[in-house]
Write a structure and sequence with these properties.
The chain has about 80 residues and is mainly α. Helices cover about 75% and strands about 0% of the residues. The protein has a domain at about 25-75. The longest helix is centred in the middle third of the chain and has 32 residues, at about 25-60.
Length: about 80
């Protein structure tokens, strides 16, 4: 049991693998970083607009959790 605890402690302290070398900050790195950032922002904006439009189309703003909460507390 003591060997297992020591092994876990050593792995915790040192890690399983050595730290990787950092990527060089070349022009292609920054272009790729910018493209990924733009893709993430486009994803966030698209789905924010999509879900807001879907909620408006289904008129779900009237059926929030407040109605369910009120019904539960009215029973008590």
């Amino acid at each position: 049991m003591k060997n297992i605890v020591q092994s876990i402690y050593m792995v915790w302290q040192k890690g399983l693998y050595p730290a990787p070398k950092p990527l060089p900050r070349t022009r292609s790195f920054w272009i790729a970083f910018g493209l990924v950032t733009l893709a993430v922002l486009a994803y966030i904006i698209y789905f924010s607009i999509f879900l807001t439009a879907k909620q408006d189309a289904f008129k779900t703003n009237g059926e929030d959790l407040g109605i369910m909460d009120q019904a539960i507390w009215s029973l008590l």
